[in-house]
Design brief:
The protein has 373 residues and is α+β, with helices and mostly antiparallel strands. The protein is built from eight helices and 17 strands. A seven-stranded mixed sheet has the order 11-12-14-13-15-17-16, sandwiched between helices. A hairpin with a 2-residue loop joins strand 2 and strand 3. This is M14-type cytosolic carboxypeptidase.
Length: 373
Amino acid sequence: MSILISAAFDSGNIRPTAILDDRVTLEIAHDKDSDFYQWFHFRALGVRGRPITYAITNAGQSAYPGGWPDYHACWSEDRVTWRRVADTSYADGVLRFTHEAQGDAVWFAYFAPYSMERHHDLVARIAAQPGVALASLGQTLDGREMDCLTLGDGPKQVWLYARQHPGESMAEWWMEGALEALTDPADPIARSLRQKATFHIVPNMNPDGSYRGHLRTNAAGVNLNREWHEPTPEKSPEVLCVRNAMDATGVDFAMDVHGDEAIPYVFLAGFEGIPSLTDKQVSLYAAYQDALVARTPDFQKAKGYATAGKGCANLSMSTNQVAERFGCVAMTLEMPFKDNDDLADAEFGWSPERSKKLGAACLAALHDVIARI
């Protein structure tokens, strides 16, 4: 049977360039109207019992080529359990991985995908829980709703939002874990948090890019996390509607959930360079980091991004804009595409399951500090 490569499905992205015997060469397609590309997700059919080598030949020109060394591609035959391809290598700008499927078809992806169908299932399931309200904050350029789940009745206003960069699918796996924990009636941390705070949760900030198979941009080719200073209906309605909703409620605590291509650790990025930085903001951010370290060994503080100097923060980015705009504590959570090198897992790497557990741990850490916010 001939090998067939396809990506014409939700979040699919690949372009086959040649198939010769048991070798397949491929290219990742750019985000629409953008130079960004790195996310891939495709199916190979006709591969049962054959060790096939796949070569992504334009990997070296991708958005973050530093993400490829020590990276292992994700694979699944049932689209439920995603493992890592042990035989993955990167050299001379080409990402290669060799895999022998047990069945007729196998799916490969940069990280375990989180489909729009699963997003709708998650939103419906959580919205059906007692005390949860579902609303649309607006529509995307492709006409999709910007789902927002609201729960809790406490005075603190907490905003959690994920997947501004759609290829960072671990961010919505994190959301699934956080939402399941927060709506668990038997969880005392969740019950206490819902008494102390009102949560506004946007599980997917970029549904258009998610469906289109983009790495970093929306349907207009715009990086949403560079639009928070001046979002517009024409380029970034996703940011505009969320920021308007934040203006209506105020913000006491905000977390923007992401994935990082190159750094094999879980870490936080803060807002140290904003013009109006206060000692209280600095203290609360440090306290939250310490609480998260205590809650999960998957989090650490030693590795991460360099901090901006005083007054040098980029206010087009959400964490900086929100911290400056509301005088609150805000942060960007980063998870790895590769693995957490402190707790490496050769079979699964960083995974959906670990992302979900981190979501619950982040809520527990918030509970540890919310009285100070």
